[in-house]
Amino acid sequence: MRKNVHLIEHPLIQHKLTLMREKSTSTKEFRELVKEVSALMVYEISRNMKLKEIDIETPIGAAKGKVLRDEIAIIPILRAGITMAEGIIDLIPTAKVGHIGLYRDPKTLKPVEYYCKLPNHIDEYKIFIVDPMLATGGSAVKAIEVIKDRGAKNISFVCLISAPEGLETLSSTFPDVPIYTIAIDDHLNSHGYIVPGLGDAGDRLFGTK
């Protein structure tokens, strides 16, 4: 793996990943698992975040406390990234949330931006772009390009399942962007699905096909 690729193998995460992969897992259960795993991932990812000291009042008296120094922004790639963002917000409720929408051009097969809404002063934020699947890497690369063009600097990409093809594309295009994943699967099939993967994450999250 390249240096900017980080595989998170916490036992609780791997346990929940197995449940997500199982095809008999219901939409409700799948959605809950994605939220839980996303929160657990950010718990691990945030281990080295910088803190600042502030003055507070406890019920007993004055004290010094520590809070996160960085402003956090979560940018889900529509639509499947939304549920991951919800899980992270449960853990970091002060985080701002932006959105980026991409679709695949039927002729070129390349991702095209159709929507982007980001917090003001995005250059001041530590950003987590979230999307459950990193398959070919095309959407991830495009999302980072769009957000960087708007001034973002401190960006991480967070996904659940990744394919070697997508990791190579993203990590070679943006070696400065850390990539966090809980599984590096075998390969992409002829339809661009990750094998063994977990199917179409968006369809499983929202009960559509």
Care to give the gist of this entry?
This protein is of the alpha/beta class and 209 residues long.
State the CATH architecture. Answer: 3-Layer(aba) Sandwich
* Count of DSSP H/I helices: 6
Number of domains: 1
Q: What fold name goes in the CATH topology slot?
A: Rossmann fold
- Approximately how much beta-strand content do the residues carry? 25-35%
Query: Residue ranges: pLDDT <50 for 5 or more in a row?
Result: none
Q: Report the average pLDDT across residues.
A: 93
Give the H and E element order. Answer: EHHEEEHEEEEEHEEHEEEEH
The total strand number stands at 15
First-to-last CA distance: 33 Å
Percent helix among the residues? 25-40%
Summarize the SSE layout with pairings.
Elements: E1 5-7, H1 11-21, H2 27-45, E2 51-57, E3 62-68, E4 71-78, H3 81-91, E5 96-97, E6 99-104, E7 111-117, E8 125-130, E9 133-134, H4 138-149, E10 154-158, E11 161-162, H5 164-173, E12 179-181, E13 183-184, E14 187-188, E15 194-195, H6 201-206
Parallel strand pairs: 1-12, 4-5, 4-6, 4-8, 8-10, 9-11, 10-12, 11-13
Antiparallel strand pairs: 2-3, 6-7, 14-15
Helix pairs in contact: 1-2, 2-3
Account of the protein in words:
α1 (11-21) runs antiparallel to α2 (27-45) and α2 (27-45) crosses α3 (81-91). 34% of the residues are buried. The model has no long low-confidence stretch (mean pLDDT 93). The chain is of the alpha/beta class. It is built from six helices and 15 strands. Strands 1, 4, 5, 6, 7, 8, 10 and 12 form an eight-stranded mixed sheet that branches. The chain has a three-stranded parallel sheet with strand order 9-11-13. α3 (81-91) links the parallel β4 and β5. 33% of the residues lie in helices and 31% in strands. The protein has helices at residues 11-21, 27-45, 81-91, 138-149, 164-173, 201-206, and strands at 5-7, 51-57, 62-68, 71-78, 96-97, 99-104, 111-117, 125-130, 133-134, 154-158, 161-162, 179-181, 183-184, 187-188, 194-195. The longest helix is centred in the N-terminal third of the chain and has 19 residues, at 27-45. It has one domain (5-46, 72-206): 3-Layer(aba) Sandwich (Rossmann fold).
